Amino acid sequence: MAKILIVDDEPHIRLLLEQTLEDLEDDDVELLVAEDGAEGLDCIIDEMPELVFLDVMMPKMSGFEVCHRVKNELKLKNVYIVLLTAKGQEFDKLKGQEVGADMYMTKPFNPDEIVEKAQEVLGL
Amino acid sequence: MNTIFLILYTAFLVQLFVGFYSLWLDHRHEANIAFFLICLCCAWWSFSFAFMFTAPLPERALFWFRLSFAGWLMAAGPSLHFFLVIAGDPWLKKRWVYLLIYLPGFVYLYGALAGHFPMELAYVVPYGYSGGTMISATIWYRSFSIYYLGYVLVGIIKLAQWGRKSTLESEKKQAFLLTWTTLGSVVLIYLIGTLLPALSIVSVPRIPPAMALIWVLGMWTAIRRYQLLDLNLNIATDEIIARIEDMLLLVNPAGEISRINPSVETVLGLKESRVQKYPVTELFHETDRPLLTNLLAELRERCRDRFLEELNLQTASGEPIPIRLSAASLESSQGDFAGIILIGKDLRETRLLQEEIIERRRVEEELHASMQRLEELDRLKTDFLSSVSHELRTPLTSILGFATIIKKRFEDVLLPAFGVQEKKVARAAKQLGDNIEIIISEGRRLTNLINEVLDIAKMEAGRVEWKVEPFELPDVLASAVAVVQPLLHQKGLTIRTKISGSLPVLCGDRDRIIQVCINILSNAVKFTDEGGVTVSATMHSPGEVLVGIADTGKGIKPEEQDKVFDKFKQVGDTLTDKPIGTGLGLPICLEIIKQHGGRIWVESVPGSGSTFLFTLPAGGRGKKISPTQEGDLLPGGLGGTALSGLGPLPVFNPGENVNGISAGVANADDAALDPAKKYILVVDDEVNIRKYLRDELQEKGYLVREAGNGEEAWKMIRDSRPELIILDVMMPVMDGFTVLETLKKVPETANTHVIMLTIAEEKVRAERLGISGYFTKPINIEALLAKVDRLLS
User: Fold this and answer.
1) Which fold has domain B244-346?
2) How far apart are CA B435 and CA B429, in angstroms?
3) Which residue from A26, B35, B370, B481 puts its CA 20 to 30 A from B781's CA?
């Protein structure tokens, strides 16, 4: 059973992502949710999701750091990480590449793109 | 021996003594030699005069008369010489002038001694001698008088001129003394020797040569007192003291003023004579007196030999005058304390300057501080914008996202469930759909606005990285024109391009330049209702390419032409015809062109149209742009900038043909599109790849059309909307990214699936633009077909 983790401190964005991706539950995909970076990292280590939608600006631990831990320290290559940012700054994008994110999306994102991405990564 | 003889004889002795004494003092100086000669002549004259009147025989008297005559006349030459030397006259530089000065003297000497003098003169002279008698008696005397007066007058005039021009007080005094003693003695000699005896009213003593004594002594004084011949240290010191700009005070050992210079007199408004023997401390301000007294005492007691202090003088009215006072003790030749010399420098002007400098520094510091504040503010502004952008995007994400989900759920799930037979329900359902659509499109507009605000803020802050590469201007213009083609078509406008054949390859951020062109073009379309748009590109000057985009729209009033480049300024009557847009399009254009080292401006005639012009340096990049390896496009950076500012979005009419499509690619089933089949557009400049993909896809049951470059592709996308596009990146005219970006900015085509044939390095960029998938060449056809199937299922 494939797992998708949603990490965002904004409840509405979490809800949006959940609702966007809930159709995939028919395809036997489990949606996991974390409310901050630290919780997200724990969840990644425990559950090993195939796909993570990771917000950048979060309390406790930023998305960059989570990504860095996962990709550069834990070397979890099978976790596909999509960084979500609202800043739209060049700096963020470069930083995203540095910490090893697989993809980078700027808010507001198109829900359809999220679904497509998920389908692609999970091979649905 | 009578009195007259004694007077004349004394005059003779004095004149002789003065002459020889002067020569003894300095026998080398030219003026001194001349003076000696004058004295000699006068002495000669006096001597002969003395014996002329006491001669026992008429023959003797005549002899002395001849001699006196010679003595007098010979004084004229040396006197002119003397005056010319004193006046430093340039005449003396010429040798022949000396001849002119001295020759007549000798001629007259000969005339006096050997010339004809009637014997009766010998009888007349001693008793009734007068100039008048002489003049009537002999031609020698007549010509001699003219010569004598002429020479003396020329000398006096020269001297007076010199005295007037001189800036030295001593020279002025000299000239004055010499002029008046000379004139005085000449007048007296004339009076006593000629005028009064001729009138025969008053009996005058026969002593004219004694009058010459005045002249000789006057000259003597002038020489000795004012030291014409040598530098007299006293005079020089006086001169220096009088001229020194600083204040100078000499204080005697008792602490009393013995001398002050005119500067002190001027500054304190008093006379030297009034303060002599005054305690010097009296001149200083009350508060400084104790200190000065101590300092002076130290000098007097030889504790130190000098000091430098800033003190205040005091004027008669009590006003303090700041000075820098340097003092030194003076020693006598025996080494005793001889007094103090005080030199004061007036600091009033310096103080003013200092105050001015302090004031300027303060202003400078303020300026610096405010500049720093401004820089800080600028940084805060950028940070603020970035934060605001973040804070705005987050809720926008929810709004847009949920609106999209609602729309989808509503259309896919709810609408089929409750059916739309009932009129009211149908209407409400339609309204609901429309309303959600409005929320989505307004949300997108807001997103664009945020992007543009951020874009321009970053450009202004110089934080944009520019992708510098060579590009062909015609390509850029074609790409931009292709983007606005649908809008032109929709409004029924024509477009003409006039591109000069010999444009150089330019260097800069190609995508940004396209952005500028699209922006101006879409503005042109927006404000033009009939007619058309003309795009031109020419060499403006050897170093500049000029691009002009002219429309036949309503134009811009002259007073508003400058404002169009201002942020958030939309020109025109805002109530009636406010165009939809952010008001940031042209300011962004301005920034981009400025960064490229070009200029942008508008020429417009209200009612007949506007022309937006910009230049780009032909030599390459603008100086401000630094090349970066990786290109970057901000979300909404291209196309969206322009299109977001447009009115109703273009409606696509599938199947409708547009003029000027170069159908260089065969599309076999162009005639009839089977609505049942899914329609795929393959875009690649390689015929073989197109054919290969086409064959493979057709076998899968898809309808396939081909385009050979980006521009063709865009026209086909617009005319007959494909459901999926397989897009190559590297293509002539318009590359894959441009097609993709354009596509994604237009809502009608934004959702079209795009699979890109690209290289890994460009994957991130492609993904950010929202592609559905990417493949690298050589193509793994199985995976591609699988992907297509999944996307279109």
Assistant:
1) Beta-Lactamase (3.30.450)
2) 10
3) A26
